[in-house]
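Dear support,

Our group has been running a series of protein-ligand predictions, and this particular one with magnesium ion is the one our PI (initials K.S.) wants archived with full inputs and outputs. We had some confusion internally about which version of the output was final, so please treat the block below as the authoritative record. The input we submitted was:
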Amino acid sequence: MKKIPELFGSMVFNEAVMKERLPKDVYKALKCTIRRGTALDAQIAGVVANAMKDWAIEKGVTHFTHWFQPMTGITAEKHDAFISPSADGTVIMEFSGKELIKGEPDASSFPSGGLRATFEARGYTAWDPTSYAFIKDDTLCIPTAFCSYTGEILDKKTPLLRSMEAISKQACRVLRLFGKDVARVTTTVGPEQEYFLIDKEDYKKRPDLILTGRTLFGAPSPKGQELEDHYFGTIRPRVKAFMKDLNEELWKLGISAKTEHNEVAPCQHELAPIFATANIATDHNQLTMEILKKVAERHGFVCLLHEKPFEGVNGSGKHNNWSISTDRGENLLDPGTTPADNAQFLLFLAAVIKAVDEYQDLLRISVASAGNDHRLGANEAPPAVVSMYVGDELAAVIDSLVSGSSYASCGEKMMDIGVCTLPAIPQDNSDRNRTSPFAFTGNKFEFRMPGSSFNIACTNVMLNTAVADSLMAFAAELEAAEDFDAALSALIRRELAAHRRIIFNGNGYSPEWPVEAERRGLLNLRATPEAVVHYTDAKNVALFARHGIYTEQEMRSRQEISLEEYCKVIRIEARTSLNMLKKQIIPAGVAWSREMAEGVALKKRIGVSAPAEAAMVQQITDKTAELSALTEALEAAVDGAPSGLEACAMYAHETVIPAMEAARKAADALELMVDKKVWPLPTYADMLFYV
Ligand code: ADP
Ligand code: MG
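Confirmed final output from the archive:
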């Protein structure tokens, strides 16, 4: 292996490569585009494209692709060779500025939620110079945004870039009031990724894992996660070898994989990178998920990114660590050490608190999926109620500000904005509240609801836009104020008082919390179909329109895509269940009871009575009959789905899923009655405790 600094970013057309390979003026212009978001001139694009091509060819690359993030949540690519024919029958290797800037994939089969009629199938991809081009599988990948020809957005990157612009604009306005002339503010994100690794041989024997990503059947393993001996445990050598390989692949792509450890569930692990801008972090996380799967294959594993691959053990999430930072590197969620810094911090903190309270629904919707429904509200994950944890110190500060009571760290005086210095806010892990969906962790917020398989773009679009909206209102009020300090104090107090109901520092997993949350008027949107229908509520449509992120039509299309995906996922799961029940599980019950019955008959013939075995034959036969009836009921449930997306999604949630669960319960009971040698599926113990 090369030394890490040499390896790191070796497959990325990053600033160092640009500087080395581009003429000075071109490099400067490109850098300006990257930093400031200014438009790039076509001629300059031509020079950049050529340099990219030469660099890539030296590394054995033959093709290029526009790499984009359609609404499927995964990434898409269509490869084109660099070759261009010459008159003499030979080819030359070409890559033009036009090809770099714009692509025209036939987009008819991507979900568009009715935005794009199939006769107008064309869409185009546009280069996003703020995320570096990179080489993957001998192909030069150009990160791009994806739009329809009529300008509607069809991807996850475009709204993210727009939301980053929106928050930058409003944050700069606010900072100007504090006498700071800042050109650009970016949101930073560090997504921690959880995943499971299982043996490929087990995976291959499980149609449910292959078709749905999760086990639809499986009795609990005699040992699960109750000993908590996996969390931070020694990483077994086979997994360590995988992680080493994984890190190298990620580092080559400039992805700063930093932390790795075993998670709570057996064979569950976590990977955390060093944070980057929201845009780059999103691209990198998409790549990370792809590479996790690829590298796992090479090591005889399969990487499961589903939110709940195994019932009864922890599911996988993705913690979205989020902050806002100026182009001079000032973290705006860092409390600071002077009273003036504190006042600014408190204003940004109030902006986030207001945003999360007012747009709880959007945050919840951004993490809604059939897979994540198994997690949110279950024991190990944050509940489906969105609330914020700010820690005891900040909670005391907020109390003092709102109620005017005395505050100890301030010399028993009332907390006064711009006069009193905040106490040091601990950033260590020890006292963090792990049960909160949205926790302040010293200088950033950690949003813990996203599922492990999610594209984090949506969550960050919601966060950026909602916070931009708070900042816009704050800026307008403070710009008009005659006495800035007085207006600032009044505003912070008022907003904290108005939105303090969203703050909850207690145990989010306790049964009392949802009751208390309801009393406070917080939303508890338990399942995807209940949540997603609120996406296009008037206040949400108005929010995105105000900041130029989505049109109402684009939002309706996204809502439709989400509901449709939910219906399809449940339908696939139900059909896979039916298939396994009819072709594997029921036949196993029949075969085993028959084999035992033959044994009982044989014994009887030679005068041996075997009443226990005869009773077992009866039990297995009864269980198989019960299962057979439940299978029929499931089939009827699948066939009875109503038309209309909303109705179909609610029906899937209320009727199909319970029918699947009932059949599963009986199948899992049968598993425990049947000889392992006739049971057609690897068991939970096999999969979770492989060697
Ligand atoms: P823990 O598991 O205790 O939450 P980790 O170290 O696993 O902590 O993950 C913390 C994540 O937060 C890392 O990805 C880190 O880069 C990220 N992070 C740290 N500071 C910021 C910041 N200012 N903005 C966004 N993410 C941040
Ligand atoms: Mg964390």
